[in-house]
Design a protein that fits this description.
Blueprint (H helix, E strand, L loop, with lengths): L9 E2 L3 E4 L6 H9 L16 H12 L9 E6 L4 E12 L4 E8 L8 H17 L3 E7 L3 H9 L3 E11 L5 E10 L3
Helix pairs in contact: 1-2
Bound molecules: coenzyme A (COA).
Length: 183
């Protein structure tokens, strides 16, 4: 059975995964929301100014009352900044499955930070919430994201061809990875 508990804080060695706060806008804008390279494979483009980021965060905060919302800010303890996010994007309680998305600013790439966050979130969603199947998808060109999924113990399931359009108008394929969690 799925037991929704909402977005509670999770602490790992280097990170605190916690709810977004209004005053995270500056970190979010600077560390990832304004950077075109970081957002290259995401559906949304760089924010034109910090007010856009503030509005986005407010819309997330307004949804935290819903116990089925899982949307964490990735706070890096060593620098006391929010450097990215990790969230459940789509879920099916009937199938006990959910899909995770993540992003951190490029200054922090290559240090297995998302891997640390993903492992912790997968554990939470399986052990605390009851999901049995965790899914993640990436644009086939986004090899680094695929590596994170592999290192997190997820297994390649399939490629979906012509899955959507990138922001530049080109068609893209996605690789689908799945991790079946112990019941
Ligand atoms: C994708 C992303 C999460 C990776 O995070 P990260 O913290 O840099 O991940 P890691 O430190 O574990 O390193 C990524 C791995 O990919 C590899 N990699 C990086 N670029 C690569 C490339 N172009 N081709 C192949 N492998 C690549 C690295 O060598 C590393 O693998 P290794 O540990 O076996 O050497 C991060 O780049 C990010 O947030 N990007 C922006 C948002 C995004 O694309 N989100 C995913 C949407 S599906």
């Amino acid at each position: 059975m799925i037991n929704h508990i909402g977005t509670n804080s999770i602490e790992t060695i280097r990170l605190i995964l916690r709810r977004f706060r209004v005053d995270d806008a500056e970190d979010m804008y600077r560390n990832w929301a304004s950077d075109i390279e970081t957002l290259k494979f995401l559906s949304w483009g760089p924010h034109s100014d910090i007010e856009v980021t503030q509005r986005r965060i407010l819309s997330w905060i307004n949804r935290y009352d819903e116990p089925s919302v899982y949307n964490w800010a990735i706070y890096l303890k060593s620098i006391k900044q929010v450097i990215g996010s990790i969230s459940v994007e789509i879920a099916s309680d009937k199938d006990k499955s959910c899909e995770i998305g993540y992003c951190i600013g490029k200054e922090y790439w290559g240090r297995e930070i998302v891997l640390e966050a993903l492992r912790a979130v997968m554990h939470y969603l399986s052990c605390e919430v009851g999901y049995e199947k965790i899914i993640a998808k990436h644009d086939v060109m986004n090899k680094a994201s695929g590596r994170v999924m592999q290192k997190a113990g997820m297994e390649y399931e399939k490629t979906i061809y012509n899955a959507g359009y990138r922001r530049n108008g080109s068609l893209y394929d996605v690789d689908v990875y799945v991790k079946k969690m112990m019941a």
